[in-house]
Amino acid sequence: MILEVDGWVLVAIAVGLFLGATLQGIVGIGLNLVAAPVVAIVAPALMPAVPLVWAVLYPFATLAREWRDADWPGLRWAVGGRVPGTAVGVLIVASVSDRWLGVVTALMVLLAVLLTWRAVRVPVTPTSLGSAGFIGGVTGTATSIGGPPLAIVYQHHPGPEIRASMAAYFCLGGVISLAGLAVGGQMTLHDLYVSLLLTPVLLLAHLVSGPLRGALDRGYTRVAVLVICGASALGLLVRSLLG
Predict the structure, then answer these.
(1) Is 68 contained in some domain?
(2) Residue 37: inside a domain, yes or no?
(3) Over the chain (243 residues), what is each successive 10-residue block's mean pLDDT?
(4) Exposed/middle/buried for 76, CB within 10 Å: 0-12, 13-18, 19+?
């Protein structure tokens, strides 16, 4: 037993974390779309704080190599929306079943993916960015999955801009969500210890993802973003319905 967590649990979480972080290193989103469901299944007591710590730490690697490509002016609106969304998310964690929140979140993401796949192009405006930030604040704080709303807004942009903008949003938004959870008494030192114990997995994923980014940037980033968002929503829906 390490840090009150069984060894096999740490191994399972590490595998999910590596796959999710590698995916995010290539596309710009994916870390907690893969890692968070694994944590929720094998160690639900670590949700949502532990995945949120990873969501803050890992994007620094992306920003170190692509920070110039981020949409910094637009991110002000997204992060601004994240603040009130976080407050709502903290209240939900304290009072509402995460099962039903998961169902609603999954259905919203699936609907957005279906609408934007062919028919609707979401304009990148202060309103859309602020709304995506708010929704991401609610779902990110309550379920640690807050990237899909903003990723759908940015889906038509170049791969480097998507990765850098999402990385900045995850860093800033994750700090806001963690602060909210800490104030609400829903984050412990044990959560922090477990998340830091597995940070070497993030470094390994960063190194693996580097050589793979170029292939996806040749016109496939948008498809990858929508597929990942849709798949994560289906996974979240199934997990929530099965309880």
Answers:
(1) yes
(2) yes
(3) 74 91 85 82 84 92 88 95 92 75 70 66 91 90 82 87 92 91 87 92 91 71 74 76 74
(4) middle
Residue 121 corresponds to which tokens in the numbers above?
A: 């192009």
Domain count, the chain: 1
Residues 6+ apart with CB under 8 A from 56: 170, 171, 174, 175, 178
Give the separation between CA 170 and CA 227, rounded to whole angstroms: 20
Q: Which two tokens stand for residue 47?
A: 């949700």
pTM score: 0.80
Burial of 82 (0-12, 13-18, 19+ CB in 10 A): buried
| Residue 228: inside a domain | yes
From first CA to last CA, the distance across the chain in angstroms is: 26
Domain that holds residue 15: 7-242
